[in-house]
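Milestone M4 deliverable, item 7.
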Amino acid sequence: MVKREQATLLAWHSHRAGDEVLQNALQSLAQEHKVHIRRVLYLLQPQHKNLAKPKIAADIEFNKLILPIDDPTAHLAIYKAVRDKVLPEIVNYLPLHINISPGTPAMHTVWLILHAGGAFPNNTILWSSQYDHKTKITRIDRVNFPINTYLAEIRLQASKQPEIALYDAEYRSPARQKSLLQLSRYARLLGAPLLIIGERGIGKTRLVESHVTRLKQRENLITVACGTLDSDSGLADSLLFGHIKGAFTGANKDRAGLLKEADGGILFLDEIQDLPKPLQRKLVRIFQDRKHRYRPVGSDKEQETDIEIVCASNRSLDELRKILDADLFDRLSHLIVEIPPLRDCREDLEIDWQRVWKELRTDESLPALPPYNKALKQLLQTHPLPGNLRDLQRIAYLTMAWWQEIKEGDKALDAALDEWQKTQITHPSSDEFGQGNYNDRVNWFKQRLAEWAYKQQRSWKKAAEFLDCNERTLRNQ
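Output delivered:
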C-alpha cells in the first residue's frame, strides 16, 4: 500500500563524498524548505553494492537499489537502467523528491529528460544541492524545469485515469513504436477520417478514448457500436441521423441523433465492418462532405455537424475492402493505423502485465506489483496470446482469485497459469497454423499439443510421461 505521507528522497551515490552529500541534502531540505525526508532510495553502481548505511538519522528508512551500470557517463545505459529498474519501484515512494546533483553530468541529464517526459509521479520535486567551498556551506534549491514533451502529455492522461490499463507511453518494441507514432501523426490531422485496425482485445477503443481524443483536442466522444444497428429497422436511421416529430409512428417529438450529439467532437464507428449495408451508403456523403451534411428522418432540410470521424475494425484491410461498400471504404481508408498484436510486441509485455494488474487490483490486500516468475516470463515470450490484453486480464483475475486462498505470489500465479492453460483451447487462433513468424507458429503448436496431452491424460505428470518429456517443459508451453 502506498504511503503518501512519507516523503522520499531519491539520489545517486556520490563516489567521493557520498555520506556528506546525502547528509547535507537532508539537513538543507529540512532547515531551508521544511521538507522532512523519512525514506531514502539510494541508487548505486555494482561496485558500491556493499556500501554501509550512511550516517543519517535513525528514523529515516534507507533502501539501496543496485543498477547495472558500468560506465557512469553512458547516457543510454543510465537512461535504460533508470527507466526499467527505478521507475517501477518509485510507485511505492510518494511524495517523491529527487536530488539531481550527485553523480555524473550524464546522470543529471537523465533526470531532466525523464522529468520532461513526465515519467515521475505527479508533484515530484527536483532539487539541486550545491557546496560553496569558500563558506563551507551547502544549500539546496528547487529546480525550475517546466519543459514538457509529447510523452509527458500521454503520461498525464494516464495519471488522470489510473484505473485504466493504457499502453505505456514509452514503447520498447519497434512494432508498437511504429504504429503508435503513426497514430499520433495521423490523429493530429483534422478533417480526415481515421481508420484503426487490429485484432480483438488489442485496445483499439482505449486508444481512441485516450490518445485520439487528446490529439484531436476534442473531449466529446460519441461511440457507435456498429453491430448493434438493426438493418431492417428505421430505428437505426433515427439513431444516427435523428428524426422530426411525426416522421413515423411513435415519433412523438424531435430526436437529435448521434451525428448531432457528436457536434464539436468525435464520432467513433466501432467495428465498422458490422455496419448494415443501407447505412453504409447513407454515410458515404457524411465522409466526403467537409460540412458533414445530412438529412434527419422525415425532414426536407439538411443539417450540418462539426465532427471528426474515427473508425475501428478487427478485420484486415483486405477483408474490409470486400465487406464494405466500395465508396465508403475509399473514403475511410486514407489514413490507416494498424495496431500490432501483443505477440509482436514482446519487449512491452512485462509493462503491459503490470498495467493490467494495476487496473484490475481493487483489493488492497493484493500486492501492488503483480506476481512475476519464470513460467509467466516464458509465456509472455512465446505464447501467441490470441486474446491479447484479454488474455492478460484473465490471468490477472485468476491469480487474484488464487491469491485469496494461497497468499503466495509464485504459487498463486502458477495455479492461475495452470487453470488458464486448460481453457486456451477455447480461444484458438483464426489461422490453422497459428499466427506470426516461424517461431511463433511452432510455439503455438507446442502449446496446443500440451493442452491436448493434458486433456487426454488428466494430469501434467501423466501427460509428460505420455509424450516422454519433462513435466516442467510441458507446463511452460
